[in-house]
Amino acid sequence: MTTHADHHRRPTVDVPPPPPATSLRWAEGALEVIDQRELPHRLSWLRLRTVDEVIAAIRSLAVRGAPAIGLAGAFGVVLSARRHTRADGRTDEAAVRADADRLAAARPTAVNLARAVSRMLPHLSHGPDAVLLAALAAVEEDVAVNRRCARRAADLVEEMLPIGGLRILTHCNTGRLATAAVGTALGAVLELAGRGRIAEVLVDETRPLFQGSRLTAWELEEAGVPYRLLPDSAAASALAGGLADCVLVGADRIAANGDTANKIGTYGLALAAARHDVPFLVVAPESSWDHTLPDGSGIEVEERGADEVTSPGGRRVAPAGARVFNPAFDVTPHRFVTALVSEERLVRPGAPAPAPHEREAVTRP
Ligand code: MRU
Fold first, then answer.
1. Which residue stretches does the UniProt record annotate as biased composition, category Basic and acidic residues (predicted)?
2. Whole-number Å distance between alpha carbons of 191 and 150
3. Does the annotation place 262 within a ligand binding site?
């Protein structure tokens, strides 16, 4: 039966959603990345034409975030394959593999980098265009995987906290800038915002390089989501004071037992969240899991230069000659993690064994 309302209903057309904003792209024979060092002052694209330029961009954090550096590394292999392929179409595979080794070693902690680089190598024998297609496919895959991670994490948060406006605390930047697009933990925050569930995001400034205040705040501004910045040192008291309902972070490498390496400061946040009964969720793709490591003790933590601590933003804040401890990451033991969410699994490392009917959805590491 047709009703009056039906006559006035607009015809439904399948309009594809707009393409998500990306943080890197292939353009006219080069990799272009948003230069994250310039944010929040300027949105500019950096053009990378050589393997050395890609390595420098990864090391200097012009491009950063585990999935994004993996993709940059993959395009580094493309650039190398194009450079080392002769007019007769034959690729000097040994030369490309040597470049791939250098790319994979540009930063040691995020497993995504070495993994994405090595995924390009089987395509070398089919020529540089095949490697380019594989890198472009990896970008598409990253976007699809992040969408799934973000939705699944948002579903879990809604299941745990079904009513009211949510206050989410996050650390570092896990948004579209840290991935090809969409983001992981911040992707989940934006998904929750789209569902009308976010009251406020508490953004750790994330010293010493301020990925929270420079990048996450910039993304939240862009998305029109309410947020407040806080010094990292205020996070524990924010959790103690009941200012956050949940903590959402990303990961650079997750060991088989769920121990998680992420931006320095994550461990302290997890301890405070556990002490104050605030759920602590890690949102990361399967490509961040390293099943070769039984636990987090084998994860190499990158140590960065002293000047990042003694001269933030180029202004000296410590006596000349001050000695510095500047690890870029820390490892959170799995017992402090409420759940790890990927595109495929929900792992509750500290939880009792799941009931038989839950076994499909909930996996113990
Ligand atoms: O040193 P960075 O800025 O590359 O560190 C990034 C992080 O620690 C992120 O939390 C992690 O890579 C996940 S990004 C989706």
1. 356-365
2. 7
3. yes
pLDDT class of 1 with cuts at 50, 70, 90: very low
Residue 204 annotated in active site: no
252, 259, 290, 330: which is the annotated catalytic residue? 252
Closest C-alpha to 167, from 258, 244, 53, 78: 244
Residue 19, preceding bond cis, omega within 30 degrees? no
Please tell me the distance between residue 131's alpha carbon and the centre of ligand 1 in angstroms. 26
* Under 8 Å between Cβ of 80 and 95: yes
User: What are the strands of the beta sheet with 24-27, ordered from one edge?
Assistant: 24-27, 30-34, 45-48
172 touches 208 (CB < 8 A)? no
Distance 356 CA to ligand 1 centre (A): 35
Cβ 237 vs Cβ 278: under 8 Å: no
What is the pTM (predicted TM-score) of this model?
0.92
Rounded Cα distance, 18 and 6, in Å: 27
In the predicted model, is pLDDT for residue 156 greater than 50?
yes
For ligand 1, which residues put their CB under 6 angstroms from it?
A: 61, 64-67, 110, 172, 174, 178-179, 184, 211, 250-252, 262-263, 328
Give me the interface pTM, i.e. the ipTM: 0.99
